[in-house]
Write a structure and sequence with these properties.
The chain has one domain (7-124). The chain contains six helices and no strands. The protein has helices at 7-14, 24-30, 36-58, 63-83, 85-95, 102-124. α3 packs antiparallel against α4 (63-83). The longest helix has 23 residues, at 36-58.
C-alpha cells in the first residue's frame, strides 16, 4: 500500500508542492485512481480557497457581491482546472519521479481492463441476446 502523506504535506501537495520520494507510489495512485478527476478538482478547490477567503472576508462591499464574485471565481477556476486536468496530473506524477506519460498509460490500461470486464459481464449474463 502506498504511503499517504500527512495532512500538512497533503495541503502542500495540493498547492503544487512536491512530496518526498517515500510518497512516489501514492502520487501515481492519486493521479490514476478511478476518482482521479474528482481528486484533481478537490486540489483545485484547495488552491482557490485562500483567494476565496480574502474575497469573502476582506473586500469592503455588501456580502451578496462578495458571494457572487466568489461563486464566479470558483466556477471559472474549476473550469480552467478541468481544461488542464490531464496535463496537471501528469506533471504531478513526473514531479514525483515517474517518466512522462506514466499516469496516462496507467489510466488507459485501467479503462481498457474495465471495458473488457464490462463486456465480459454483458456476454456472460446473456444481455443483448436476440435468440
Amino acid at each position: 500500500m502506498p504511503t499517504r502523506p500527512g495532512p500538512v504535506r497533503w495541503v502542500w501537495y495540493a498547492l503544487g508542492g512536491g512530496l518526498p520520494a517515500e510518497h512516489r507510489d501514492w502520487v501515481l495512485a492519486d493521479t490514476t485512481r478511478r476518482t482521479w478527476a474528482v481528486r484533481h478538482l478537490v486540489r483545485a478547490l484547495v488552491q482557490l480557497s485562500p483567494v476565496l477567503l480574502v474575497v469573502l472576508l476582506a473586500v469592503p462591499v455588501p456580502f451578496g457581491f462578495r458571494a457572487a464574485a466568489a461563486g464566479g471565481g470558483v466556477f471559472l477556476g474549476l473550469l480552467f482546472s478541468a481544461a488542464y486536468m490531464v496535463e496537471t496530473t501528469e506533471h504531478r506524477a513526473v514531479k514525483a519521479g515517474w517518466p512522462p506519460g506514466t499516469a496516462a498509460r496507467v489510466r488507459a490500461r485501467r479503462a481498457e481492463r474495465d471495458s473488457v470486464e464490462k463486456h465480459a459481464r454483458y456476454r456472460r449474463d446473456g444481455a443483448g441476446s436476440y435468440d
